[in-house]
Amino acid sequence: MSTAAVTAPSSADPVAPGSTSPAGPRWLPAFFALAVIWGSSYLFIKVGIQEIHPLHLTLFRVAIGAATLVVILLVTRDRLPRDLRLWGHLFVIAGVGVALPFTLFGYGEQRVDSTLAGLWNATTPLVVLPLAVLVFRTERMTIHRLIGLFIGFGGVLVLLGIWQGVGGAQLTGQLMCFGASCCYGVAIPYQKRFVTGRSQSGVAVASTQLILATAQMCVIAPLFAGAPPALWTLSGNVIASVMALGALGTGIAFVIMFRTIRLAGASTASMVTYLIPLVATVVGIVVLSERLEWYQPVGGLIILAGVAVSQGLFSRHRAPGSGTDPVLDERPSLVASEAGACQDCSAAESAAPPLRANDGRPKPDQMGVTSEKPPARKASTNSP
What we know:
The protein is an all-alpha fold. Helices cover 61% and strands 1% of the residues.
């Protein structure tokens, strides 16, 4: 992938954000492919843990994902970062934002269905926001964000079915899935504070995260789970699921995400967040014959509504049209997960120069939140 900044769209630019062809928007196939890949990840985890320890599953997943992205780097003649301080920050993100949540989802799905794990992943933006406001100071709290938080966490109580009383392995599994979302909630504002906006390409940074996560799991997995299983002892379904989880969900999906950002803009690309739980639910029910209680999808929908409100999706200040996102600099840092990629679309947008109107004033962000952010600090104040 090219690491050059995307130029401003023009009437002659065939791939300007939001552009369409006679056959329709060019970004739609990749957009839906991304939703299917990331939404199916919970199915692949569920199949994988039937024969593989969650720690070993994480090890295989990040190793295959790292190998996939390194091949892409070689083909595109890109290179890994050389800044040792950046590697230090990415080491933290690799542990908190990659290795730990992947493992928690594996442990969680030993106790709950994949459909429920996919619904819990939707809580990630609700965890990100208070940490970004209170701890990392990368965002400001606003009225609609606060309302969205209350709505979203109301959805969490519905998802748990709190009125029935919860306990046992079911509660433990759900808390593990929520813990994975909390890990993303820490890693995403951390990377936005210390990593986003650097000169390296997003694929290079994501590759580094996965390489570091692989190194971490090479130490942790054998220490706590023993030697990994031999390949010939695993069934074909498990091997295929692990390969898909690593190569597709933790590798190629990031290239698709960057393409979608370039073609449709970050705001539009981030809408994949709302399709992932839907795909996870449909795939779990159709393929694994899983069942949901009525309140679980209802809780998931309330959570997504809270996320939409907190992100200003229903803001009356939202700019008309879906094709007027700010010009994007293709250098966002991504937590190597579906949650990180979806959330960090906003980081890509905030790192880019704003598209200006004819009178020189910045145009309002489509998601209705850019105008509420504090003025960007100088690069020197962002340096760790």
